[in-house]
What does this fold into?
Amino acid sequence: MSDVVYDQHEVRRARYAVAAVFAVHGAVTGSFATRVPWIQDHASLGAGQLGFALAFTAFGASCSMPLAGRISHRFGSRTALRGLIALWTLSLVLPSLAPNLYTLCLAMFVYGASAGMADVAMNALGVEVERLLDRSIMSGLHGMWSAGALIGSAAGTLAAHLGSDARLHFALAAATLTALGILAAGRVLDLQPAEDEEPPPRFALPPGSALLIGAVGFCAVFAEGASLDWSAVFLRDRLDSSAGLAAVATTGFMLTMAVARIAGDAVVNRFGAVRTVRAGGVLTVVGGLLIVVAGHPAVAMGGFALMGLGIAVVVPLCFAAAGHSGPNPSQAIAGVATITYTSGLIAPSLIGGVAQATSLVVSFVLVTALACGLVVFAGVLRVGGRDGRTEVSPRAAAVPDPRP
It folds into this structure.
């Protein structure tokens, strides 16, 4: 990118704008998740067919993510993000219009592709703002995503409770979120490539550094996907809990993740990314062990809460490390995102397969074992300055420190 000097006010405004874009992105996901049963009924699908169609979300995201850097290079970061966030919010309508399996697969592919491109573009901008501020902000940005997802799911839950048609619900949500997304994206930094900068390739294998960082993200997202999809089932089937109490375990997991992400930047700024992820890995392992040995719902719920607390900041820090690891942040972030999306895709089905062959307890032994990777391999996040803290870039040196 061209060397442009930004003043303190402009960078701080850009931080809040990117945070708003993250919240809008999360709200789309939260809105969709609550209406999956309606979509299943509308398309007359069985459970297996629905799972097959939903897999196209991750497939579309994985295929499209490398394109985000090319689009940002061609149009500039601000214009690119405006278009990509609008494409993402508007794609929310598509799944509700699908009348059968084939059209739903196509809709989910487009939905996932637009999600992936917007995801890479907003994370790349977040990394650039973090570089200019010389302080960790990525955890807080992902906390805003979680907050947006909670708001979107709350609105979707209300719509489902009222028995509203998902086509109407999604149309209203898409219109509102598109307006908010375009407004927020119009206030981000307008990064332009240098005149002699080569455009990134349309498709490329992730760089080696992204593979190592992505492996850490894989461990965290595997635990996240397993907990989100199987925590309620674990309490109901393993510990004979009521449906309401089982749902509380999932909600508690999501809340601890959201709170930890919003508060996580202060911890990262104080202790660095490596030590933060290692400590989070310890919490995740302890939480997994509590789940495995739980004989009472309260113990398992505490385990899921600890797991959410432990993995909350890992993915944001993986994106930050990828963005700082080389000259092409978008390509590195796309590589890490592809790996984490793959983890999120395979985790729920693998947990189910292991549970069917053995038991859910054995499934969470696997989750706990993978969580050990957070402790062992956290050192790959040590890029830039000491313990994962980034060094000040030439542009950052021109920005007054916004901290009091």
In short: The two ends are 29 Å apart (CA to CA).
